Amino acid sequence: MYRVDAKIIAGTDAGNLLLIVPGFALHEELNALSELGIPTYDVLKMTTINASFAMNKEDEFGTMEVGKRRPINA
Fold first, then answer.
1. DSSP symbol at 56
2. How far apart are CA 49 and CA 1, in angstroms?
């Protein structure tokens, strides 16, 4: 999918499965994508801007810009 420029979104959606720990599972997924040879820049896009476009929320988050949502603990 990456080779044909498909929009890939990183992030586990299996929150109710045993042995899947939210957060930790995402880090493992990002590592696996990197080990597959996907450049770091593109792996980061999968977790940020691609996710915001998929949710039609690119005006709220996905990039660091004035006027976008701040992290919860900021």
1. T
2. 17
Q: Which pairs count as long-range contacts for 60-68, CB under 8 Å and 24+ apart, including other chains? A: none
Report pLDDT digits (tens) over 17-67.
667 776 777 888 899 999 999 999 999 999 899 989 998 999 988 888 888
Longest dimension (CA), the chain: 39
* Cα separations in angstroms, 1 against 30, 57, 62: 16, 23, 21
Q: How many other CB atoms are found less than 10 A from the CB of residue 60?
A: 11
For residues 45 and 64, give the distance between their C-alpha atoms in angstroms, rounded to a whole number. 12
Task: Give the global pTM.
Answer: 0.73
